[in-house]
Amino acid sequence: MSLNKKESSTNNGPSAGNTPQELPSIAAPLNDQQLGSLQQTVSGLSSQQLAWVSGYFWGLSQAQPQTTGAAAPINQAAAAVAAKPAGKLTIIFASQTGNAKGVAEQLEQEAKALGVEAALFDASDYKGKNLAKETHVIIVASTNGEGEAPDNAIELHEFLQSKKAPKLPNLKYGVIGLGDSSYEFFCQTGKDFDAYLAKQGATAFIERIDCDVDYEADASVWRAKALDKVKEDLASGQEAEVVQLPVGQAAAGHSQYTKQNPYTATLLTSQKITGRDSGKDVRHVEIDLEESGLTYQPGDALGVWFENSSELANTILAKVGLSGVESVEVDGESLSIHSALVSKYEITAANPQLVTKFAELSGSKKLQKLVEDKDKLREYASNTQVVDVLAEKKTKLTADELVGLLRRLTPRLYSIASSQSEVDEEVHLTVGLVEYDKGEEKRFGGASSFLAQRLDEGDEVKVFVENNNNFKLPQDDNTPVIMVGPGTGIAPFRSFIQERDNRGAEGKNWLFFGDRTFTQDFLYQVEWQKYLKSGLLNRLDVAFSRDQAEKVYVQHRILENAEQVWQWVEDGAYIYVCGDATRMAKDVHEALVIVAEQQGKMSRDDAEEFINDLRKAKRYQRDVY
Ligand code: NAP
């Protein structure tokens, strides 16, 4: 459609007297009245807006039968793209805690801003056989601790290894793997998807990237490169004019506050909820989201950006012979190395790369030997803080050398311990302070010590909500739920119960909780007792591991109640597990397999398959790390 002044001299002139002169009339299949009201409607628009509107209507015309004058409902999809390019980009995320989902969403927005048609899918909503119909696919995949696919991608991951996987000669793909190089199976799920797609005949249009925990910068560079290639490919496939989305539209539907743009909230409460004689300091934290508009669902996590302790920064600086005033450049900004350590770099948790680089810089024989054995290196890195790695050999470093060793600071995610139906604009967390002795000195966790020690009530804390669709209450309020949450793993179940209470959900609720001692470590005891009394909580089984000579854990309680647990499962119960991934979650899984084996009279293999099927059906969900 061209808006040409010359054509305005035809007899289709504007009929409304106050129609602006600049608006031309068109030799168009509209009657005077239609044209007049159209001109009135668009009279206030700028030339840029008019250009967009022209593309918008062209898109509409392509999306409906070619009749004249018929009013049609507005089609949003047609608004995005004026003429379809030859193919489109499909983005699939395999995400456990939400990082991969976040990267995929950014990719979608950037694609759309570039005018590339893109569709975003949760891996659990994507049918693997549709890959055969795609031209361009990007998979963003995180990996679970033992190299397993995230829960939302288990099915797709299995499907692509199976005989049912389609041949994919026409597919071009890219993979972003997200992981943590402290783990043996670093980015394994990304590597798997890469290998499976290649095996089916698909071609990687860009080399896979394996990103570490500080993935933002690397992922962003990769995305830009990948989108350039996709755009080039799609444009050469067919002459197609693609209309860009108006500014702001791409982000519609997303909260204004994100990991990159967190909300500055206020700490309302940080209250110790373990007893005076407890070996642990666990805090109940309340944060005010005020007018932020941030919303969350039970099962979601809160991302917390934290600052490191100034004393720890000083200790590190002293170890490498720096005073703290030396300046470094971070993101184009010049600041003192002390400030950089406090607010820009991870100075608590070490990682294998840091150990490897420092082994080289320091010449430490002990570290150099460790570097040769990958397993030992990983174990050392995950059990040693940065300051203790640097203490292995006294070494003078420049400020640039020091920051060259460190990863950028990343926020910590905490399972949310409240439901908005109960606490409105607040969000509650259950935070275990990480602390231990190292010789004469104390060591603390970076984020937990920030929340529990360095932040006072009324202070500001930067937060964002990380949705977790892999840990959600059943849609049907009549469904029974079994919750297993020892230690701070109890957090999301406080949220679940508050939600079910407020929704008046009729489904039965069974909680398994465990911790060290009944008197000191029974987190939220009064609340659970209240829910038991009201009948909302049908069963509460506790395992206090250090109240007797023999250790008693939640999985023992599950096995003692195997018959009832099985009955609940037969009645359709959903099972949720939250807390420690390395030991507890595995032992609880094993207990569930045993329950199925014994009570369901199954072989070991069938029992394992049964529990796996529960997982696939989202009736067995875990939030563990
Ligand atoms: P914890 O260390 O898990 O201890 C809680 C209870 O579990 C204690 O009684 C402990 O007994 C017992 N326990 C030890 N080994 C066990 C096993 N193999 N199976 C079952 N129970 C076992 O509690 P916490 O200090 O509160 O730490 C909670 C853990 O969960 C942390 O690793 C935390 O990072 C994680 N967490 C994860 C999430 C999440 O993924 N969203 C949320 C919250 C917490 P003993 O100590 O007496 O042996």
How would you describe what is shown here?
The chain has 4 domains: 89-235, Rossmann fold (3-Layer(aba) Sandwich); 263-305 and 411-466, Translation factors (Elongation Factor Tu (Ef-tu), domain 3); 310-326 and 334-405, Up-down Bundle (NADPH-cytochrome p450 Reductase, Chain A, domain 3); 481-624, Nucleotide-binding domain of ferredoxin-NADP reductase (FNR) module (Rossmann fold), CATH 3.40.50. The protein is globular. Strand 17, helix 17 and strand 18 (509-515) form a beta-alpha-beta unit. The longest helix has 22 residues, at 216-237. Strands 1, 2, 3, 4, 5 and 6 form a 6-stranded parallel beta sheet that branches. The chain has a 6-stranded antiparallel beta sheet with strand order 12-9-16-7-8-13, with helices on one face. It starts with 31 loop residues before the first helix and ends with a strand. The relative contact order is 0.08. It is an alpha/beta fold. 37% of the residues lie in helices and 18% in strands.
Q: Look up the CATH topology of the largest domain.
A: Rossmann fold
**The CATH homology group name of the largest domain:** Flavodoxin domain
N→C terminal distance = 57 Å
- Flag low-confidence runs: 1-28, 58-85, 238-254
Q: State the major sheet.
A: 6 strands, parallel
Secondary-structure arrangement, i.e. CATH architecture of the largest domain: 3-Layer(aba) Sandwich
Q: How many domain units? A: 4
Ions and ligands:
NADP nicotinamide-adenine-dinucleotide phosphate
Domain Flavodoxin-like: 89-227
Binding site for NADP(+): 545-546, 551-555, 587
GO molecular function: flavin adenine dinucleotide binding; FMN binding; sulfite reductase (NADPH) activity
Pfam families: FAD_binding_1 (PF00667), Flavodoxin_1 (PF00258), NAD_binding_1 (PF00175)
